[in-house]
C-alpha cells in the first residue's frame, strides 16, 4: 500500500483544523454569553430585592445626622410619612453592631406612627468616640450619656408637647437603655422600657423601670435567659422558681407592669429581625403606651427574606463576574513561575501537617502574647489599631501565616506547593481580586444596612481594613498554595479546601477557649467568618477553572473580605 506524501498529509490535516476551529470559537463565545446572562439575572434579582426593601419602607423616611453634645452621637431617624403619634422611641444596639442593625425595629415602629431614633454607641459604627479610654469603669457612663443625648433631642423635637418616650435596648444596649431608665425614675415622659436579650442585672426595683418588657430567645447566649429570670425576681419580688417562660406581674403602681417572654426558636442574633419579636414589642406598647400601636401590618420576616435574597444574588453574581473579567484580562491559562526541581513535588500529607503546626503555633503565640485586659488595645506592636478582638484575630492569622509560608519556602519536601503566577498574570489577579471585593462592597455592603448591620466603612475603619488584610494575607496565601497543590495532584481541590477550612474554624474555636476572657466576643463574629471561609470553597473551585494556579486571586479576595468584616464590626478603643 502506498504511503501518503507530506503534501497529502497537509491537505488532510489543514481542513480538519479548519473544521474544529469554529467549534472552539463558538464554545468560548457561548461561555461568555451564558456568563453574561447569569450576571444580568443575578443583578436583576439583586435590584428586585433592593426595590422590595424600599417598598417595605415607603411609609417611612430615613435621615441621618450627628448630635454634637459632650459625646458626638451618629443618629438614624425613622419618621412616619403620615400623621405621627405623639410617641418617640430611642433604640440602643448591641456589642459589635451599629444603628443600622436596629433598622428592623425602627421601620416597624415608624409604620405605627412612632418617630424612632437608632444611634451608634461610642466606638461602634460611625462613632468617632472610643468605646473606652480608661477600661471597663468608663464604658457604662459613656453608654448612658449617649442615650441621654438622643433622648433629650428626641423629646425636644417630638411631634407635639407632652411627647411620650419608649426606651429599647438590645444586648449591650440593654445596659445603656436600662441604666438610663433607672437613673430617671421620675421621668414622666418615659412610658415603657423594652430589653431584648438583656444583660442588665442590678438596681431594678418594684416600680422602675416603668412597664418593663424582657424578651429573650429560646436559644439565646448562655446566661441570658437566667439573667432575664433574675430581672423578674428583682422587679416583681417573686422567687426564682416562679418565673416561667411567659411571666407577667402587676405592681401596686399602674405603671409597674413587668413581663418576661421567651421567644421559641430564636437565638441571640435572630431575635433582632424576627417577626415574633416585633409582634411582642408592638403588643406591649399597645397595652402600655397607646392603643393605636399595632394597627398597621408589619412583616419583619418578609423584609429579612428579601435582604437575604439580595445578598445571595450579589454573592452568586460574583461568579459570572469573575468569569467575564478573567476573559477580558486574558487570565485563562496564565503563566506560572515554578522551581523546575520542585515543580513535580505536589501536595502530600506533609502539607496538612505544616498547616496544623502553623495553626498550633499561632494558638501558642496568641496565648502568650495577648494582653489579659479585655480593654487593652491589642498585642504589641499592633496596639495602634485600637480595636477589640479584630486585632487579636488578625495577629493570629499573621503568626500562623508567617509560619506556614516559612515551611513552604524552606522545607524541601514542601517547596512544590507555593507556585506563584508570573508578573503580569499576578498583577491581573490582584486587579481582579480588588474589583471583585469592590463589587461586593457596593452591593452587599450597602444593602445590608436596610435590615442588618451597615458594612460600609468610615475613614476610621477603612485604613484598619487595609492593615487587617495585610496581616491575614500570608496565611491565606499559604492555605491556597496547599489547596491548589492538592488540586494539581488529585484532580480536585474542594476536599482539601473543606478540610483546611474546618481546621481553621476549629483553630478559631480553640483560640476562644484558650483565651476566653479576651476573645469570648469572637463567638459573635465567628459564624460569619465561617460562612465566608466555606463560601470560598466554591469560589476557589470556580476560579481554578478560570485561571489555573490562581492562588493570588483567591488569597487576596479572602484577605480583603475578612479584613473588611473585622474592621466594620468590633468597637474601636482609644
Terminal CA distance: 91 Å
Read across the widest sheet, the strand sequence of neighbours is 1-2-4-3-5-6-7-9-8
Mean pLDDT: 88
Quickly name the level 1 CATH class of the largest domain. Answer: Alpha Beta
Pick out the low-confidence regions: 1-26, 334-344
Q: Based on helices, strands and strand pairing, what is the structural class?
A: alpha/beta
Strand content: 5-15%
Q: Count up the domains.
A: 2
Q: How many H/I helices?
A: 15
Count of beta strands? 11
Identify the overall geometry: globular
CATH topology of the largest domain: Rossmann fold
CATH-derived architecture of the largest domain: 3-Layer(aba) Sandwich
Largest sheet: 9 strands, mixed
User: How do the helices and strands follow one another from N- to C-terminus?
Assistant: HEEEHEHEHEEHEEHHEHHEHHHHHH
User: What integer value in Å does the Rg equal?
Assistant: 28 Å
Helical percentage: 55-70%
CATH superfamily of the largest domain: Alpha/Beta hydrolase fold, catalytic domain
Amino acid at each position: 500500500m502506498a504511503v501518503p506524501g507530506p503534501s497529502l498529509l497537509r491537505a488532510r490535516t489543514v481542513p480538519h483544523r479548519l473544521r474544529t476551529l469554529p467549534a472552539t470559537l463558538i464554545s468560548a463565545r457561548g461561555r461568555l454569553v451564558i456568563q453574561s446572562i447569569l450576571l444580568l439575572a443575578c443583578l436583576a434579582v439583586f435590584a428586585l430585592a433592593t426595590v422590595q426593601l424600599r417598598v417595605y419602607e415607603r411609609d417611612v423616611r430615613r435621615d441621618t445626622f450627628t448630635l454634637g453634645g459632650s459625646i458626638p452621637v451618629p443618629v438614624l431617624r425613622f419618621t412616619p410619612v403620615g400623621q405621627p403619634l405623639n410617641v418617640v422611641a430611642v433604640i440602643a444596639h448591641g456589642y459589635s453592631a451599629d444603628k443600622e442593625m436596629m433598622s428592623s425595629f425602627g421601620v416597624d415602629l415608624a409604620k405605627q406612627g412612632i418617630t424612632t431614633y437608632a444611634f451608634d454607641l461610642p466606638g461602634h459604627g460611625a462613632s468617632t468616640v472610643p468605646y473606652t479610654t480608661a477600661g471597663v469603669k468608663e464604658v457604662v457612663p459613656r453608654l448612658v450619656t449617649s442615650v441621654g443625648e438622643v433622648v433629650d433631642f428626641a423629646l425636644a423635637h417630638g411631634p407635639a408637647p407632652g411627647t411620650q418616650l419608649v426606651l429599647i435596648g438590645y444586648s449591650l444596649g440593654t445596659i445603656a437603655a436600662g441604666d438610663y431608665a433607672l437613673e430617671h425614675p421620675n421621668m414622666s415622659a418615659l412610658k415603657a422600657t423594652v430589653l431584648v436579650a438583656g444583660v442588665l442585672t442590678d438596681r431594678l426595683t418594684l416600680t422602675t423601670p416603668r412597664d418593663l418588657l424582657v424578651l429573650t430567645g429560646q436559644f439565646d447566649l448562655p446566661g441570658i435567659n437566667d439573667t432575664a429570670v433574675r430581672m423578674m425576681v428583682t422587679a416583681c419580688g417573686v422567687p426564682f422558681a416562679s418565673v416561667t417562660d411567659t411571666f407577667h406581674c402587676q405592681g401596686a403602681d399602674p405603671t409597674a407592669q413587668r413581663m418576661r417572654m421567651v421567644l421559641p426558636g430564636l437565638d441571640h442574633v435572630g431575635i433582632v429581625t424576627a417577626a415574633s419579636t416585633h409582634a411582642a414589642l408592638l403588643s406591649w406598647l399597645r397595652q402600655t403606651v397607646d392603643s393605636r400601636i399595632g394597627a398597621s401590618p408589619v412583616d419583619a420576616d418578609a423584609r429579612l427574606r428579601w435582604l437575604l435574597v439580595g445578598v445571595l444574588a450579589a454573592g452568586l453574581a460574583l461568579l459570572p463576574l469573575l468569569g467575564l473579567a478573567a476573559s477580558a484580562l486574558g487570565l485563562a491559562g496564565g503563566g506560572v513561575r515554578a522551581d523546575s526541581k520542585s515543580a513535580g513535588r505536589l501536595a502530600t500529607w506533609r502539607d496538612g501537617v505544616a498547616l496544623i503546626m502553623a495553626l498550633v503555633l499561632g494558638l501558642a503565640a496568641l496565648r502568650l502574647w495577648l494582653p489579659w485586659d479585655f480593654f487593652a488595645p491589642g498585642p504589641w506592636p499592633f496596639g495602634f489599631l485600637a480595636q477589640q478582638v479584630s486585632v487579636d484575630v488578625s495577629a493570629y492569622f499573621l503568626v500562623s501565616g508567617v509560619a506556614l509560608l516559612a515551611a513552604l519556602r524552606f522545607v524541601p519536601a514542601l517547596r512544590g506547593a507555593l507556585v506563584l503566577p508570573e508578573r503580569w498574570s499576578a498583577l491581573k489577579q490582584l486587579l481582579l481580586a480588588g474589583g471583585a471585593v469592590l463589587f461586593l462592597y457596593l452591593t452587599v455592603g450597602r444593602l445590608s444596612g436596610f435590615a442588618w448591620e451597615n458594612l460600609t466603612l468610615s475613614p476610621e475603619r477603612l485604613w484598619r481594613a487595609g492593615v487587617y488584610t495585610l496581616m491575614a494575607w500570608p496565611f491565606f496565601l499559604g492555605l491556597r498554595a496547599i489547596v491548589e497543590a492538592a488540586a494539581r495532584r488529585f484532580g480536585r481541590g474542594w476536599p482539601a479546601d473543606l478540610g483546611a477550612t474546618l481546621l481553621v474554624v476549629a483553630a478559631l474555636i480553640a483560640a476562644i477557649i484558650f483565651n476566653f476572657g479576651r476573645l469570648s466576643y469572637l463567638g459573635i463574629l465567628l459564624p460569619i467568618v465561617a460562612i465566608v471561609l466555606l463560601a470560598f470553597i466554591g469560589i476557589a473551585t470556580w476560579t481554578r477553572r478560570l485561571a489555573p494556579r490562581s492562588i493570588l486571586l483567591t488569597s487576596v479576595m479572602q484577605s480583603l473580605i475578612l479584613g473588611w468584616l473585622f474592621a466594620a464590626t468590633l468597637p474601636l478603643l482609644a
